[in-house]
Amino acid sequence: MGDLVLPLKTFYWKVNAQEPAEEVIKQAGEIIRQGGLVAFPTETVYGLGANVFDRKAIAKIFNAKGRPLDNPLIVHIAVLADIYQLSSSVSPLALYLAEVFWPGPLTLILPRPETVPAEVSAGLDTVAIRLPAHPVALALIRAADVPIAAPSANLSGCPSPTTAKHVWADLNGKIDAIIDGGPTEIGVESTVVDLTGAIPAILRPGKITPAEIEAVAGKVCLDPAAKGIITSFKTDTTSEKWRPRSPGMKYRHYAPRAPLYLIEGNVPQVTKYINELASRYQKAGLRVGIFTYKETAEHYRQGEVLVAGDRCEPASVAANLYRILRRFDELGVDLILAEGTPPVGVGLAVMNRLRRAAGNNIIRLGDNCWT
Ligand code: TXA
Ligand code: MG
To answer: Are residues 205 and 274 in the same domain?
Structure first.
């Protein structure tokens, strides 16, 4: 990748999310067509886009993010019919799921034709496709007139960006342009469903829950990675015992700079434990961040206490999750103690991200702790 030149500057364009200015979209589409990189808002998180058919532009994405080359990208389209440009075999079930959930936060894994560069899929014979529900994303794809390959627009391993400011902090000077369409609505990345096996498999949970997919697709299975526990495969990623179907799932990810300790269990035990840990660390002179919820925040009297949302409404937690993780770094805390939330519904997506941000630092309290 030695011949990849950095852009001279990163353009920053602010637009109305519902009706983005035509000149901005036109210019951004032109950048994509010329092989450049543009960050843009989607309904989940900001994406870093390039022309899917331009190998050099795809290489630039990996370079700008510092992304491991074995972690494949998602390809974004603006009209359902474009699915046929990107997959050699679109099953009736794939089409049905697309019709029900698109535009929206669902990514489908389908067989990849040779016309889609292998680099996009990190060499896999499958490709990830999604049709996002955001006027700016859709307008950009139309203006570019090609499907846009786009991972989240963060430095690899860092929390995904939910505002253009987050993208700027990570990628200014490394990409050609950022379109600022305000904060993203959902806050966690799309649900990824692999349709290449006998039973649809959820590889990454998101706003669209396993139950919602099951209601449309019949029986689905949850890939082991969907829970977000990476301890079982952290040390030996080449092991035959457990080879992730979604390569991105084998990395510690979504993580702030400060180490994050995730404490799972029932509320009284967890809040007591966090308070004890926080006192101990504070006495040792460390700055402690506490990640908590509206219902439980009053239990804490020390440290930087940040409320992510309502425990009983995990979608509200998802919406704030990455912003709060980044905020702890801005506050300069030395470590973060995070309260877990039950991994059901959208809570599964929240816990997937928190567990992966925690890496091995997960503490489970009580008998009925979530498995
Ligand atoms: O909501 C989203 O999906 C956002 C926005 C920008 O659309 N995108 C996003 O992309 O989250 P990224 O690259 O951060 O995550 C893509 C995930 C990774 O976990 C990757 O391993 C998985 O999708 N993936 C991509 N292609 C795959 C494939 N062919 N097979 C299995 N997993 C795949
Ligand atoms: Mg990502």
So the answer is: no
